[in-house]
Amino acid sequence: MNMGSVNMESLSPIILSLVTFIPAVGGLLILLIPRRDRDIKLFAFAISMLAFVASLHLPVHLHRESGLFKFEIDKVWIATPNIHYHMGIDGISVWLVVLTTFLTPLCVLISWTSIHERVKEFFILLLILETALIGVFTSLDLFLFYFFWEATLIPMALLIGMYGHGRRVYAAVKYFLFTIIGSMFMLAAILWLYAKTGSFDFVVIQNAIRSGGVPGFETASLWLFLGFFIAFAVKVPLFPLHTWLPDAHVEAPTAGSVLLAGVLLKMGTYGLLRFDVGLFPEQAHRNAPWIMVLALIGIIYGALVSLVQPNMKKLIAYSSVSHLGFVVLGIFSFTTAGLNGAVFVMLAHGVATGGLFMLCGILYERRHTYEISEFGGLATPMPKYATFFLVTVLASVGLPLLNGFIGEFLVLSGAFQARPIYGILAATGVIWSAGYLLWMYQRVFFGQVKNEVNNTLPDINLREKAALWPIAVAALVMGVAPLVWLNAIDPVVQRYALAPFTQLASKVVGQ
Amino acid sequence: MMTAFLHSLPTLLAQAAISIPKTADYMRILPELVLSIFGMLIMVVDPLLDEESSHQSLGTIALIGTLAALASTFCMARYPGTAFYNMVRVEGFSVFFHFLVIAIAGVAVLSSFEYLKVQHIRAGEYYGLILFCTVGMCLMSSAIELVLIFIALEISSISTYVLAGFRRRDASSSEASLKYFLLGSFATAFFLYGVALMFGATGSTNIDAISQVLRSGNVPVLAYVATALMFVGLGFKVSSAPFHIWAPDVYEGAPAPVVGLMSTGPKAAAFAVLLRVMFEANAPGRFWLIWVSAALSMTLGNLGALVQDNVKRLLAYSSIAHAGYLLAAFAAQPELGASAAMFYTAAYAAMNVGAFAVVSHFANAGEKYVTLEDYAGLGRRSPVLAATFTFFLMSLIGIPITGGFFAKFYVLTAALNSNLVGLAIILVLNSAVGAYYYLRIIVMMYMREPRGEVPVTPVPTATGLAIAVCVLLTLYLGVLPGRVLDYAAHSAHQLVSDRSTPTAAAGFSTIVR
Fold first, then answer.
1. Do B439 and A176 touch (CB under 8 A)?
2. Is this prediction's ipTM beyond 0.85?
3. Nearest residue in B to A158, CA atom
4. Domain extents for chain A?
């Protein structure tokens, strides 16, 4: 026992680098494997599981670490300009890292048979993407952050463009251009901060801004805030920058959709919380009203569009626009409940929507269509599948005791505190979401089997069960024991997002 | 002017008679000597070999020549100082560009092995000219005497004029050569005229002497005109707008490995001259000249590239755009700008030579396959080649872990540090436009079905080596740019610091925060 704890402590400075780079190194090792698809898949699965197991170290030992950021590592990467390899996580990012490592093995499983050609390239891209995603959540140096942020771009675009369906090229190019144009503005803002503070370090810049040591910050802060905001808003995606999302989701291969909805969108909300709110609390507060309005439009608009979608995958894609609206609403409500809820929705949505996309993919493998009208009465030939689908739908709808409920509830209460009308409008989003998801479920699974082909569909096999069980269990556990997560999230939310704001508020009230 | 020169002539001659150049002087031009010797060796050996075997052996000689020149650059670097009556100076700056252009030439030679064989081009003069061109480029980076710079410029230009026309069976190649020659001569005439006016304005053609006059405070009006004229000449060489019209046609017609060479080597050398003229000599009135040209190049280059269907033309427009990004660094504060520009030339060379190595391999006999359509499904037919090409294109877009990213990053940093917010915004917007057309190639390679009739040939060792070198260098500059940047910053500091103060290297660590 004692031996173990010693090992654990010696692990702490390198564990983040390990978790981050295990997938990419594994991905490069795949290059060496001869083109036998089975070996490649097994290896990719082993690597992603290894990363998952390693990442479990982080939440388990989080409380032992001290300081603002845990498991910190800070080494000079490039001396001039002053770029550091600075990584560290807190109660928010730790769960996003785990979410990434949790979903990737499932993505490998779900792609087992649906990817037949260029298998090697697929898994290499998937694993490199995983590293980039984890890197985004662990970087504390703005440059390093931007580095990983951009590094997610090409693997994802290639996954969509090479392995997607129908209009995949259009979707991939659209995704790529939206994101890169957005992030250019962020780069400009980062460089401005560097030019004035001489550092890319998040903590250093944050302290410099708080102590007023940045010349010209008063006039520039709005533009800096917006520079970051555009990059993140595209990723979230916030209405009206969401148009790339339905295309990308519908055309992406299943694993791509899972990571896109599960993790990539969270890069945007995480960025909003960590960098936009973290660095520019005053501007964030000042601009909160219109951002909240955009979030509300997203919630309601996304839900309404979902309601009329004939395509199952597109329906879930638009439901993501709606759910991510909750996250943004929660963040910019600047209440403890809202912020806690926002982070929780991020995680819950990652699990539930990731699960829904996996389920869609399973059906697509059997029927090669996502059209709801093609199905009906599927519960008869595929009872187990229907059960898993129901659990995931209910989690996404926000049924109490499943994970969707806690987050949305907290966000709604936060929004009520901020401004009652926001809460009321957002609450309609919950109702809509119950409507479109359950209606979809009814049309697909209940009633008589209308389409003859569907009678012979095989139910899920062992591999698919192995991919779906973790989702169902996670949805349940997160719903029953949300405090495991909230206990880690809450102190960070209090310290980072609210503290500067309450200072500001007391200043305003004091005057 | 002329009379003044004639009056000083006897004393110059007298000096020359008294002080015969020392050995150290020859060491300071060692790479140039080595390259010239190997170039002549190729010309001599060529007639003795039959055409079949000459490809391999002459190419090998040229390669050894460039390697020897690289090695001799190390020797040269140990003899800092001026040589040949203050005409050549060896310092960090010139060593940097020596390395760069010789390396470019080496990779160009490597990627020519296969190309010459496939296209049935005689190897003799081809390799000879590449080496002579390199001599000119090397000399451009170390010359501190405007007349010598002009001669070096001509040496490199004339070689490239000829090289551009080497696909003799193809009319477009001859057209490229002729166009390049006519417009090029026109442009060098502008440069020469600028040199003459500069001599008139300052009474000297030596950069140091000019610098002293121009820094002294009262700048003659003539110097402004001279700066503008010299900029026209050099702007042509680096293909910056509005002197870029020649580039697409020439790049389309010239042999692909030659385009790889001339879109990077002479460009790097011309940028070196531009750095000397603009920063070391402190040319007056340069700011708006460069600002406008940079903004124009970026915009016209990127917009032009959007509609191209020929990959070589597309890369030509892209190189115009990149010249614009590079020029943006010239508008920044001298030290920051010079180091950013130096890093950019290196990164751009690595990725662009690599990209053209791929293009020239893929073009096949008669350069038949150079349209975007021909790249359809390359990711399926030859995955490794497609992956490396994607890597170069990512670097050209400026995506992390590639040299192109840091290059653009340093230029942006330099611009923002110099409060050039407008230019920085233009640069950022242009990068976004640029991403689109590079992406078109990637999309073609990976997301379209291959067309049956385009053949796939295995990559021969030499081409593979050339591409591998470029990939490694691009990756190195993208992951560990520190050393190269430090070196660039150090030599940039030497370059712009006033020669009269001896503490050249002192404040170097404070250059870039």
1. yes
2. no
3. B446
4. 286-511
